Amino acid sequence: MQPYFKKTMNNNRISLYGFLLFLMIIPSWQASGKPLAEYEVKVAFLLKFASFVEWSNNEKTIGSNPVLIGVVGKDPFGSLLPSNIPPEEPDFLEFSVTRVSSTVNPEGEISKFHILYFSETDPSTLSPMLEKLNGKAVLTVGEGETFLTSGGIVSFSLENNRVRFQVNLKNAKKANLKISSQLLNLARFVIR
Q1: For the range 28-35, what are the long-range contacts, defined as Cβ-Cβ under 8 Å and sequence gap of 24 or more?
Q2: Contact at 8 Å (CB) between 171 and 151?
Q3: With contact defined as beta carbons under 8 Å apart, do 93 and 67 qualify?
Q4: What are 10-37's pLDDT values in tens digits?
Q5: Which listed CATH number (3.30.430.20, 3.30.450.370, 2.30.40.10, 3.40.50.2300) goes with 9-191?
Q6: What is the DSSP letter of 102?
Q7: Closest-CA residue to 16 (of 182, 177, 179)
Q8: 83 vs 116, residue with greater confidence
Q9: Would you say 113 and 70 are in contact if contact means Cβ atoms under 8 Å apart?
Q10: Exposure of 182 by Cβ count < 10 A (0-12 exposed, 13-18 middle, 19+ buried)?
Q11: Would residue 142 be called left, alpha or beta, if left means φ above 0 and alpha means ψ between -120 and 50 degrees?
Q12: Which residues are within 8 A (CB) of 22 and not within 5 positions of it... i.e. 6 or more apart?
């Protein structure tokens, strides 16, 4: 996976074109008999989301510091999402990925992340963790529409063998996150 994502929101137009190109290439790879695995696409989305979100918390300014991604629960990505993804060029983002137990204290360890991916879908486990993150500047990403109603911000779903995503803008605002309208336009639906 190449970290080709720019640091500034000013470069979003170029990033968006690259992102759209990536989305258009996916069906052609599938038609050529070389389908991308579901989680390869999800990794690309996770990394790309960082270019389209502004964190209001000054401690989480993206630029000189790496974007911190946490994977909570069972890790579905494996080697697709390595622990460190260095920037390819000086103006590109660096990512640091940590696998996190679903039993950690959300008030402490996991609230430091920019992006948290939840592999856990059990509401009895998920809802309390998301509730404790309410108001924290963390982009929460998970699976299925119930993730959004449980307090999550972005959820993945499979539709006709394609990975799609949905956004809960209400939950993003509660987390003091500003999501670019360009990304919202690509979402399958947005809860406002």
Answers
A1: 30/161, 35/161
A2: yes
A3: yes
A4: 455 445 555 554 554 444 444 444 456 8
A5: 3.40.50.2300
A6: T
A7: 182
A8: 116
A9: yes
A10: middle
A11: beta
A12: 44, 48
How much is the pTM? 0.79
- The answer to whether 144 touches 159, Cβ cutoff 8 Å, is no
> What pLDDT was estimated at residue 5?
43
For the chain, how are helix, strand and coil distributed in percent, rounded to 5?
Answer: 40, 25, 35
Q: Which amino acid is at 72?
A: V
Q: Is the dihedral of CA 16, 76, 84, 174 positive or negative?
A: positive
Strand order in the sheet with 115-118: 84-85, 95-100, 67-72, 115-118, 139-143, 154-159, 162-168, 190-191
Two structure tokens written together for 161: 């063998």
User: 181 pairs with which residues across the strands?
Assistant: none
Which pair of tokens denotes residue 124?
A: 């009895």
- Residue 39's nearest CA partner among 99, 98, 81, 84 is 81
Q: Supply 151's token pair.
A: 């307090």
